[in-house]
Amino acid sequence: MWGAISGPCTLDGACVLSPNYPQYYRNNQKCTIEIDAANAAPISVEYFNTEWYFDYLLIDGRKYSGRRRRPSGKTPSSTIVWSSDFSITRRGWKLCEPDRRLLEQAPGSDGSDESAPVLAAEVEADIEARRMVIGIIVVAAGVSLWALLVRYALQKRILSPLGGDLADSNAKSRRNSGVYINVHGDTEKGERSNVYVPL
Description:
five-stranded antiparallel beta sheet, elongated, 12 strands, four-stranded antiparallel beta sheet
């Protein structure tokens, strides 16, 4: 995948390295890395740490810098440019070609891949687990909403004036009471339900 390199960047087997890697690169450095478009593949980042924003790799018009904004999985289609400014340096980066054997064995590369059913099962299990978590969140949110609505309705009933002293004594008698709500949304007085809403 890597073609000709101009400047202080270096080639180490299937990897290209920032100047002086694994030591710190220097200020005011620039190099270009040509890409063999016929063999271009997703970049595997072994290490990436540059001064954020100011020291960067430019790949297909996008800048990569810092520690988190790295070009993992990016397939370059044109020349990569490395640039550092006049101050602050880091260890730099090590970008490698992916293992060609893994690319050839990737699911969908041909019809005879035996690992595809395993990967499909893993994806389905992951989707099912996410659905379960979302379902739990929705149920919890629904119970909370039910509880708030019932509490609001009961407070409105208790605090509404029904006729002088009678309403006041009725409100006082219910002040320390509560409502139990079960997961199915039914409201009852008693301890057979799951969620208690104090008034």
